[in-house]
Every structure is written in structure tokens, then in C-alpha cells.
Amino acid sequence: MTDPHLKEIRKVTPSANGCEDCLRMGGEWVHLRLCLSCGHVGCCDDSPNRHATAHFHSTHHPIMQSFEPGEDWRWCYVHEAVV
Fold this sequence. Notes:
The protein is an alpha+beta fold. It has a single domain, classed as Herpes Virus-1 (2-Layer Sandwich), CATH 3.30.40. Helices cover about 20% and strands about 20% of the residues. The protein has helices spanning about 20-25, 50-60, and strands spanning about 30-35, 40-45, 65, 75, 80. Strands 2-1-3-4-5 form a 5-stranded antiparallel beta sheet. β4 and β5 form a beta hairpin.
């Protein structure tokens, strides 16, 4: 089955070269995630502040992609699945 949220993917420009929220507050991150609806760069759930997931909860943008070099996998927050 194809995830219906894939149609919400846009051509985006990353908002920062690191987690934009951690950069603003002086926080640290483990891995980065790119919102494929708006380009927000947030930190992963292994990071102390979990900004990528917080971004999903505040915006309901469903699909993010790893923003780590050499990784291209995507995650649907709504279906909690790799897409």
C-alpha cells in the first residue's frame, strides 16, 4: 500500500544546517530530520529535545526524511512507518 501522505511532499529548502530549534536555544542534537512539507530541520527522537517530532505535533506535516549524509529514508509520523 502506498502512503497517502506522500502526496504532501514538496521541494523544500532546509531551514538550517543543524537543528534550527537547538541552534536558537543552544541545545545539542544526535541526528537531523528534514520536514518534506516545509523544510524545517529538527533533531531526532534520540536527541534531548526531539524537535522533529515536536514540529510534527505542532504543524501536522506528516513526512520527514533523514538529513544525515548518505541517508535518504523517509518516515510518516501519521502511520509510524518508513515510506
